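Work package 3, deliverable 3.1, input record:
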Amino acid sequence: MIEEIIGYLAGIFIMISFIPQVIKSYKTKNVSDISLGLIVATLIGTVFWIIYGVLIESMPIIIVNIIFGITVLYQLYLKIKYDK
Amino acid sequence: MIEEIIGYLAGIFIMISFIPQVIKSYKTKNVSDISLGLIVATLIGTVFWIIYGVLIESMPIIIVNIIFGITVLYQLYLKIKYDK
């Protein structure tokens, strides 16, 4: 029970983590200090997380990682669009 | 078996994701485009992940998140040090 709550808290914080970054990049249009490697490695990891969630049939893992993946994908778009 | 491999791949990519960011920030000393919110939310999530790993007694989750947490913590230090 307590494990489940802590697990959900971990998932929620990771899930929302890229939201302030996306907002900042969208507003400032400055992305040069952000590493493309960070974004790409995170995206690849997230795809493996989604596959893992499908294989073990865990809806929370799938949903959390799809939401997270969308924000990271949008960050990749902003990085490519605004990078000098 | 295949789930385990995919789970490890997911963990490895997330674990190494902040390494290129840390290298970039260390080299360029430019961190203003990086959101403090991203770093802090990721750190909090990682702490919950470590607690979760301890509660369910999963050594891989603990180790992966400690290594990841160290890189994110170092990124926080670089962000505070070089932020204008």
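The interface with chain A takes residues 2-3, 6-7, 9-14, 16-21, 23-25, 28, 30-38, 41-42, 44-46, 48-49, 51-52, 55-56 of chain B (CB under 8 Å).
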